[in-house]
Design brief:
Structural class of chain B: mainly alpha
Order of helices and strands of chain B: HHHH
Largest interface: A-B, 50 and 43 residues
Number of helices of chain B: 4
Strand content of chain A: under 5%
Oligomer: heterodimer
Shape of chain B: flat
Largest sheet of chain B: none
Structural class of chain A: mainly alpha
Distance between the termini of chain A: 38 Å
Chain lengths: 116, 107
Amino acid sequence: MNRWLLLVTAIVLEVAGTLALRAAVDHPAWYALVAVGYIGAFVALACVLRLGMGVGVAYGIWGACGVALTAVLATVFFGEPLTAPMGLGIALVIGGVLVVELGSQAAHRRGPEAGA
Amino acid sequence: MSWLFLGLAILTEVIATLCLRASEGGRHKVWLAPVVLGYVASFAFLSLSLHRGVAIGVAYGIWTAVGVALTAIASRFLFHEPLTRLMGVGIALIAAGVVLIDLGETH
């Protein structure tokens, strides 16, 4: 299976698990999907890493897409407010997650003495 | 109180991630119990913050991003992992984003 397709699978499972965590506040039965979603996401992510994708790239994209999709879908499903400053704040944290993860990977490629 | 639970969710997640790093991919089995306990506690605290009325979009964004920032900083001191200027920029972006989300929520 293609590693990018696996990464998309990991993101979808993680977002499903996260939204289920919110749904479980009203109906505890959703906790089952939280467990399935997150365990599945971690298994898919482990497979992505085993297929040779860099840890920084995989975690950065997974985290950033997860945050973005969760914020958008939470407004759709649960009517959560998403004001302009909040949207900008979420965009900044997404950028930050990508920069930290990719920066970490770049530093590891240059060797352990980089950035010290 | 709801923000306290979100803070505890971040803290337990960071501890679990650092223990996972210390286990070196599961080779040192002694670390695996705190890894599992930490992640379970983290989800419990995240769920408690949602029960207290924190929006999931906000909680999840802050939980993920602050966790990434704190893990990078702690790894620098515990495992001598690189913490470059670029990563510092990323951590500053996360901090600014969290402040904006918080301000946006109260307006």
